Amino acid sequence: MNVSAQRHILSRSEWFAGLPAPLAEAIFKEARLLRLKDAPVYLTGDPPNGLFAVLSGEVHVAQNSGDGRIAHLHSVGPGGWFGESSMLDGEPRFSDAHAIGDTRLLRIGRDAFQRLTKENPAFYPAFTRLLCAHYRVAISHIVSSATLPVMTRLAQRLLHFARLEGRSRPGSRAIEFRLSQENLASTVGVSRQTLNGLLKTLEADGLIEIGYARVTLKRPAAIEKLAREERPVLSLGGV
């Protein structure tokens, strides 16, 4: 993959697209390509090993609870960045990041990151803005999980993943993307059984189509309307 193709993919990120030209050039100078297949990028407790951008494939970021359960935090698709927290504070990783399938990453190693930020102090605030952007998303997720009806949360998560890596079907408004029900249940904050009931309701209403590790939003506008609801719109089972 040449630099031009990499730039095109990374331009999907609002953060990267807004970087000053000197910093963007410095990133390409310092970064190295990394290819993984169904393997960890880093694990909880690991020392900082880089700031990463996804060029192809997908990375799942998750946390392990004390009782062995895995909480899926988010999925990172092409153009997305992750791993900046430990690079900024120097502390060990507090989550796991796994490459799903054949995944290509752009990696800014620890030494390279320090060169970027210490030799050019004006670049440092850009990386704190990346951290803040992810923090805002995390807070929004926490607030919605605590206050919004379950169907609203589900609609919001479906739209989030659709924007992240969705592909439009030719000649249709439908949007298709890869997503396992296990990860979706974790991000919505419900059990697999409850999620299955919610998805079947949406499918019966003709709003979505469910396949193996795949979801299609057949009527995205209707899902967007559900995502704005502040009160339950359906009588569904408890979480």
> What fraction of residues sit in β-strands?
15-25%
The CATH C-level name of the largest domain is: Mainly Beta
By DSSP, the count of extended strands is 10
Largest sheet: 6 strands, antiparallel
How far is the N terminus from the C terminus?
44 Å
Radius of gyration from CA coordinates: 19 Å
Percent of residues in helices comes to 40-55%
Runs with pLDDT <50, length 5+?
A: 231-239
Going by CATH, the architecture of the largest domain would be Sandwich
Shape: globular
CATH topology of the largest domain: Jelly Rolls
Please report the number of helical segments. Answer: 10
Explained architecture:
It is a single chain. The strands form two sheets. Strands 1, 2, 3, 4, 5 and 6 form a six-stranded antiparallel beta sheet that branches. Strands 7-8-10-9 form a four-stranded antiparallel beta sheet. It is α+β, with helices and mostly antiparallel strands and 239 residues long. It has ten helices and ten strands. The longest helix is centred in the middle third of the chain and has 24 residues, at 124-147. The chain folds into two domains: 3-144, Sandwich (Jelly Rolls), CATH 2.60.120; 149-227, Winged helix-like DNA-binding domain superfamily/Winged helix DNA-binding domain (Arc Repressor Mutant, subunit A), CATH 1.10.10. A hairpin with a 5-residue loop joins strand 3 (51-64) and strand 4. Helix 7 crosses helix 10 (220-227) and helix 8 (181-188) crosses helix 9 (192-204). The protein starts with a helix and ends in a 12-residue tail after the last helix.
